[in-house]
Design goal:
By secondary structure, this protein is mostly helical. The protein has helices at about 5-20, 20-30, 35-45, 45-60, 65-70, 80-90, 100-110, 115-130, 135-145, 150-165, 170-180, 185-195, 200-215. The chain starts with a helix and ends with a helix.
Length: about 220
């Protein structure tokens, strides 16, 4: 193990002891570039280093690190996968400029407070300005699903995946919409896609098993 990777692992082990994210971020950003962290998350020999790099990207990476964490979602080590899942969800909200991210935050708060129609309106406003903002499509899909507008939600999930092929949440959401429409074949396809992107989705794995059994018994 090189001195460089040993240092990152040491920062990570200290973080596991004291859970001091501020100290971890300060130490790590002084020594490592985003590009180096992406490389280590993908290809470091030691799983602890890959975990540390994925954790770091979740804290300080921007949307440009989406592919690196997307690949980490299928790492052979479950710890890397879990860290990557937490981190990549944060990255998805970091696309765009400051005002676009602020508007996305408003949309998410509206959804949390169950103001779904207004959330759709504000998300649509954001998408008119930034049609490439995958998470805006996903959040509008969530709001549409909550209003039982399943076809609209499916369409928005599809757009989210077009712009962000690692968006396992959109694939899963699309599957849930197809279930509500009693379209089990397409639901199964979507759930399989979500699980391929993120093998940690145990609830989706259970849905796949249930659907496969139900369709075999027909």
């Amino acid at each position: 193990m090189s001195e460089r990777t040993a240092l990152l692992e040491r920062f990570y082990q200290q973080y596991l002891i004291d859970q001091n994210s501020t100290s971890f971020i300060r130490q790590m950003t002084r020594k490592y570039s985003i590009g180096t962290l992406e490389r280590l998350a993908r290809s470091a020999a030691r799983r602890e280093v890959r975990r540390a790099a994925a954790l770091s990207l979740g804290y300080v990476g921007n949307y440009e690190s989406n592919a690196a964490l997307g690949m980490a979602l299928i790492d052979e080590d479950r710890g890397v996968r879990l860290v990557a899942e937490n981190g990549i969800r944060s990255l998805w909200t970091r696309d765009g400029n400051d005002s676009q991210r602020q508007l996305l935050g408003i949309v998410m708060r509206l959804i949390a407070s169950r103001q779904f129609a207004e959330a759709i309106d504000r998300a649509s406003e954001l998408l008119e300005e930034a049609p490439w903002f995958a998470e805006a499509w996903n959040q509008r899909a969530i709001a549409a699903y909550s209003l039982s507008e399943y076809e609209s939600s499916i369409s928005d999930c599809h757009e989210a995946l077009e712009y962000n092929p690692y968006h396992f949440a959109a694939a899963s959401g699309m599957g849930q919409c197809h279930l509500q429409l009693n379209d089990r074949a397409n639901a199964l396809e979507c759930f399989r896609r979500a699980l391929k992107l993120n093998p940690n989705l145990e609830g989706i794995r259970a849905n796949i098993v249930h659907l496969e059994r139900a369709m075999e018994s027909e």
